[in-house]
Amino acid sequence: MVTMIVGIGALQRQTLRARDVAVPLPRCTTCAPDDLLQDVLDKLRPSSGLPILVTDGPHVVGIITARDISRIVQRHGLRRPESQ
């Protein structure tokens, strides 16, 4: 089973194994490298949320974090809308 680690406290890290705190891949939001970001954000569920795992077949090739999304929004939010 492919899993993603969720945050744990510093004291617990000395006794817990990764499998004890991992979230199964089917419960994570995933996307392909060529998916449009808007489509990926549209499929977020409260139970999966961020981060988003970018997968290419069975391989995780990247991760999109809340900070990544925030940077994109800030960068594009500061620009003036293009006139059409």
How do you describe this structure in short?
The chain has 84 residues and is an alpha+beta fold. Helices cover 26% and strands 24% of the residues. Strands 3-4-5 form a 3-stranded mixed β-sheet. The protein has a two-stranded antiparallel ribbon with strand order 1-2.
Question: What's the topology here?
Answer:
Layout: E1 3-5, H1 18-21, E2 22-24, E3 29-31, H2 37-42, E4 52-56, E5 59-64, H3 66-77
Parallel strand pairs: 3-4
Antiparallel strand pairs: 1-2, 4-5
Entry keywords:
5 strands, 24% strand, 26% helix, alpha+beta, three-stranded mixed β-sheet
Alpha-carbon distance between the termini?
49 Å
Main β-sheet, in a few words? 3 strands, mixed
Average pLDDT across residues?
Answer: 80
Domain tally: 1
Rg value: 16 Å
Name the beta content range: 15-25%
Q: Helicity range of the residues?
A: 25-40%
Say how many strands there are.
5
Strand order of the largest sheet: 3-4-5
Low-pLDDT parts are: none
Helix and strand composition category: alpha+beta
Order of helices and strands: EHEEHEEH
Tally of separate helices = 3
- The best one-word shape is extended
